[in-house]
Amino acid sequence: ASDDKGQLLFHLLGLRAHLAATGRDTPAVTLKFLIEGEEESGSPNFEALLAERRDRLNCDVVVVTDTGMIAADTPSTVTGMRGLAVCTVAFHGPDLDLHSGVFGGAVPNPATAIARLAAALHDDSGRVQVPGFYDDVVELTAAERELFSRVPVDDAEFLGVAKSRALAGEQGFTTLERIGARPTAEVNGIGGGYQGAGGKTIVPSDAFVKLSFRLVANQNPHTVIKAVEAFVAEHTPAGVAARIDWEGEGVAPCLVPLDTPAYGALSDAISRAFDGLPVLPTREGGSGPEAAIQQALGAPMVFLGVGLPDDQIHAPNEKVALSMLYKGAEAAALLWAGFAGLGRSGLT
Amino acid sequence: ASDDKGQLLFHLLGLRAHLAATGRDTPAVTLKFLIEGEEESGSPNFEALLAERRDRLNCDVVVVTDTGMIAADTPSTVTGMRGLAVCTVAFHGPDLDLHSGVFGGAVPNPATAIARLAAALHDDSGRVQVPGFYDDVVELTAAERELFSRVPVDDAEFLGVAKSRALAGEQGFTTLERIGARPTAEVNGIGGGYQGAGGKTIVPSDAFVKLSFRLVANQNPHTVIKAVEAFVAEHTPAGVAARIDWEGEGVAPCLVPLDTPAYGALSDAISRAFDGLPVLPTREGGSGPEAAIQQALGAPMVFLGVGLPDDQIHAPNEKVALSMLYKGAEAAALLWAGFAGLGRSGLT
Q1: Structural domain boundaries of chain B?
Q2: Is the previous residue joined to A58 through a cis bond, with omega within 30 degrees of 0?
Q3: CATH of domain B5-81+253-347
Q4: Mean pLDDT lowest for which of A277-281, A336-340, A344-348, B92-96?
Q5: B174-179 contact pairs (CB < 8 A, 24+)
Q6: Is residue A348 over pLDDT 80?
Q7: Which residue of A136, A196, B121, B185 has the fewest C-beta atoms within 10 A of its own C-beta?
Q8: Chain B residues 119-178 with a CB less than 8 Å from chain A
Q9: Which helix (H) or strand (E) holds B79?
């Protein structure tokens, strides 16, 4: 399966190929395999493990395999994962639901207030309005935007998968830039007051909104959480009590610089495995524990994964294409040789 | 009980007093009693009955009894009831809930859109932003505002009943003006996306908001419904489909002019029954079928009701104070004499 047992295996094939091709008994660089089996559950024990086994995991480069490529004939590598901060904001107004004829228009309505909070999150051009939200964002360079623009992702196809009738989001960016390289604020759920059929003329007592913030390098989840809390306080009207519950401490974003020797070696290895095709950089819109590895080990990170968009990950009949596994194995075999060629001093 | 069996009875006592005091066998004016028993269920058959029995109900003045007074020592009369229009607005975005990491920030989010619609209903000063909403509103005169200001309704007491920690609403108006003489837009319920505990990083497929609009004279429910529909269309983003379901055709507001002979006779009768105290005009924030009576019968309307704020209407142990019933009976007895004194030509 592509997410991720199958992809882990190509490293064994790659190691065998590497040994066979080089005639060595041991690989040209020391390899440490770390298989993280809790990523789909939010990696609850991963950071503690990284801290506890820091010495055994010491390394010069980290190669992550839990990623995909654009298409079988379009080799690519992930160069960023977004971070995440998730919360529920609850507004409490009057202590009971009130008759809207007797009290409506005279007391604060928490459902109106929560709607105004959610509406204030974006301006009309889709930019997030939490003060300071973009302060730490590493902007895309012209060179990165040019590379992004070469990625053959079609908006019509994207809409077809999303079953959406329009694109939306931050103006001035392409779809791929919006979901990979730009931070977002999203309303995941909203509720309050009467939920049944027809009407009920009340001023509700309570309302809530569930928000998630996707973060990009170098945004810090802690900084964003504080900024959102200030924003909520600013949008809490008199007579309304706000409560914010965060899901944990958030996930940090991670970014792979394109100008490092490790990235150069990875790109070269993938390209050679894919018959010399150029390797395009992509970024994942989702979030994983990669930043935790970067922070714990302090080593450069690259991504070598060969999943394909139609592998049906998380779905029935999830698969992995054998042709991709073999190419992944070839790229891994070449990568160890490439890293060895650079040497420790050339890598770090 | 105060809402409304008890209050109906004082008319029988009043009629007996009227006959005894005047020495007549029949009242000084022809009385037709109309007891409407479906008001709490939205009066589903009332308009048809009014149309069907129009001839039998023909009259010069309508006296409505389903109302209250400010306090036992502060006689008052209702001079307006707000109208009502109630709807559910549903927004449909993508055809399925989407992963917010893969699609968030790139497709329209119907929960965000419904929040922006609800937030756009009011400006920061609490004024309803539906274009044309206030066009037909009969503004309070300086004299009416002066009378309103004499009504001893205490904001602290109002907040205590509402169990709210602040007042809110349209700036430039008192609490009593806001709930009696000003139209409102209220969010009665809002919903969409993930509703459970914790977080779920989705872009939801659907969201809704339940809205009610309280109307004052001379707003027309049909005109308001059309204006709200245009407002919703204007606030429906590309890629989102809107659907609006209205609860019926709305309820028209009604207003009693203070300068008519009928109002003068009523005010005089109540004042005399209450030991010469001045009678203050109030307006009900809620809505009833009174406008339907006005429209069907085309006669001036006045309100003689003696319910008190602490009668616990719609609650256990709903009651009516006997002292108030007797004063109501006395006012009724005096009112029939007052109407007769004016004569048909003086009334209409």
Answers
A1: 5-81+253-347, 83-137+183-246
A2: no
A3: 3.40.630.10
A4: A344-348
A5: B174/B148, B174/B149, B175/A106, B176/B148, B176/B151, B176/B282, B176/B283, B177/B140, B177/B145, B177/B148, B178/A105, B178/A106, B179/A101, B179/A102, B179/A103, B179/A104, B179/A105, B179/A106, B179/B285
A6: no
A7: A196
A8: 119-122, 126, 158-159, 162-170, 175, 178
A9: strand B76-81
User: How far is the C-alpha of B206 from the C-alpha of B330, rounded, in Å?
Assistant: 58
A224 Cα distance to chain centroid: 16
Model pLDDT, residue B185? 98
Q: What is the Cα–Cα distance from A194 to B55, expressed in whole angstroms? A: 42
Is residue A227 a contact partner of residue A213, using CB atoms and an 8 Å limit?
Answer: no
Which ipTM value was assigned to this complex? 0.91
CA gyration radius, chain B: 24
Q: What is the pLDDT of residues A92-130, one digit of tens each?
A: 999 999 999 889 999 999 999 999 999 999 999 999 999
Query: DSSP state, B323?
Result: H
Please name the residue of chain A whose CA is at the shortest distance from the CA of residue B240.
Answer: A165
pLDDT at B116: 98
The region, left, alpha or beta by phi > 0 then psi within -120 to 50, assigned to residue B319 is beta
Which tens digits make up the pLDDT trace of A285-319? 888 889 889 989 999 999 999 999 889 888 888 99
Pick the CATH number of B83-137+183-246 from 3.30.70.360, 3.40.710.10, 1.20.1440.230, 3.30.70.1660: 3.30.70.360
Which pLDDT value is given to residue B314?
81
Residue numbers in chain B where pLDDT is lower than 70: none
Taking CB atoms and an 8 Å cut-off, how many pairs form between chains A and B? 296
Asked if A7 has any chain B CB less than 8 Å from its own CB, the reply is no
Q: Minimal CA–CA distance to B269: which of B329, B325, B344, B309?
A: B329
Q: Tokens 């779920």: give the residue.
A: B200
Res. A137: pLDDT tops 90: yes
pLDDT given for residue A124 in this prediction: 97
